[in-house]
Amino acid sequence: MLPLKGFSWPDRKAVLADLIDPESGEFIDRVIGINFKAPGSYTGQDMLEIHGHGGEKNILRILDIVLSSGARLAEPGEFSLRAFLNNKLSLNEAEAVGDLIDAETEVAANLARRRLSGTMDRDYEKIREKLISILMEVEASLDFPQDMEEAISPSYIDGWKKRTGDIIERTNQLIESCDWYEKIINGFEVVLVGPANTGKSTLFNKLVGEERALVHDEPGTTRDMIREKLVVSGYPVLLVDGAGWNEAPTDLEEKGRSLLIREFGKAFLAIIVIDGSNERQQGLNEILLNIKGLRKIVVVNKLDKGLVEQQEPAATLCRESNKIEISAIEGKGIDELKRAIVEAIKKIEPMNHAIALLRHRGALQELKDFLNRALMRFRYEESTDMAAEDLRSGAKIMDELTGRSYTEAMLEKIFSRFCIGK
Ligand SMILES: Nc1nc2c(ncn2[C@@H]2O[C@H](COP(=O)(O)OP(=O)(O)O)[C@@H](O)[C@H]2O)c(=O)[nH]1
Ligand SMILES: [Mg+2]
Question: Domains of the chain by range and CATH?
Fold first, then answer.
């Protein structure tokens, strides 16, 4: 029993109490104590919360008294682990708590909240149920072939095919949601690209809000790649400034260019910056060739100098895209550009379904492979028992994803990233 004077242990009621040092009898703090009787607590066990006045010295003294009265400090994640073991929290919800704590942007926090509200568990449960109902029918057709003669008729198999196909589609959406989540954590990579001297580095600095990249009127100033993380309307963006394109690159510029080309493979979006005060854009054809297939925003810079009519291929590019006219130096059009970046991001946002955990991507991929195999066997009317085996493997994966089966190592990995007290 803790040395709390006046504390009378009612369940789930805040009680004002004086905390006394049991050794010296000295008054330590006037605290609020809340007693939670099992199973009505976060962990599902008996719990006592003590709310003292803030301040490091005071809190440490309170902690000291609690510890010398027989308590011990919790391991990182121990509260949530106990909550999981006492069925207060699903494994996925516990992990969402970790994600919520780690979230660096509002969007990431919202995704974690969506998971914490159980949307993902509900999605997984639905998939598991659907999968098991197909499996049961297939197994029945194997166990009682005579009774089920009808059941293995083509119309039945068609039903299995369709239902398996539906689960595959759902699994695909979840895998895509992992890609989205990864970008929410690591940032949507946006690469600035264009001929030399069009103002890419000036724009980079403007977007980042500091003088990060060197700006110079001499072409070829930027050769190395510079990256900076920024948050645009709550979305994390990894902005990359690299070498420009000119027609006779030096060795060093050539190296910078190949670095940039490699970057295009990972990028989410390219911002093509052209100099609107100049009618000819060096190397633009080659640039366009290199960013083929990438999402694009065209930016016409140096609005303050007055824009001139563009020669090809810039003329066509401007006509066919939603170009944005800006002055990087004066900061004109920057908000519009930011809006366009956010719009491109939002286009791929998974709206109406759960966002899976990154840790689940591998398992979801495996599930999809098993289901595709089962589908193939149904389609080519290969032996149904092989299809059943694939479905069973898929169901096993769903047991893991729903937290029905887990290993010590998994728990260790999930809960060890929590900080103490969670
Ligand atoms: N007038 C004007 N000059 C600009 C603008 N943006 C960049 N510049 C100038 O263009 C030159 C090249 O800029 P920089 O950012 O280094 O271009 P980069 O080679 O594309 O990175 C510098 O002299 C800048 O001051 C702009 O919006 N208006
Ligand atoms: Mg530059």
Answer: 4-72 (3.30.1360.120), 116-184+357-416 (1.20.120.430), 187-347 (3.40.50.300)
pTM of the model: 0.72
Q: d(Cα 78, Cα 56) in Å, to the nearest integer?
A: 23
pLDDT in tens, 170-218: 999 899 888 888 898 889 999 999 998 999 999 999 999 866 666 666 6
Q: What are the beta bridge partners of residue 191?
A: 240, 270
User: DSSP H helical segments within 69-118, as ranges?
Assistant: 78-85, 91-102, 106-116
Rounded CA-CA distance 16/6 in Å is 8
Max avg pLDDT among 62-66, 111-115, 215-219 = 62-66
| Any ligand 1 atom below 6 A from CB of 110 | no
What the block records as the tokens of 391 is 């479905």
Which runs of E-coded beta strand occur in 146-304? 188-193, 226-232, 235-241, 269-275, 295-301
Sequence-distant (≥ 6) Cβ neighbours of residue 37 within 8 angstroms: 11, 12, 46
Give the burial class of 262: count Cβ atoms within 10 A of its Cβ; 0-12 exposed, 13-18 middle, 19 or more buried.
Answer: exposed
State the first-to-last Cα distance of the chain, in angstroms, to the nearest integer. Answer: 24
Closest Cα to atom 13 of ligand 1: 199
Residues less than 5 Å from ion ligand 2, measured at CB:
200-201, 222
Ligand 1 atom with the shortest distance to the CA of 327: 27
Atom of ligand 1 nearest to the CA of 194: 20
Task: Give the bridge partners for 31, in sequence order.
Answer: 17
Structure tokens at 162: 């369709």
Site of tokens 């169901």 = 395
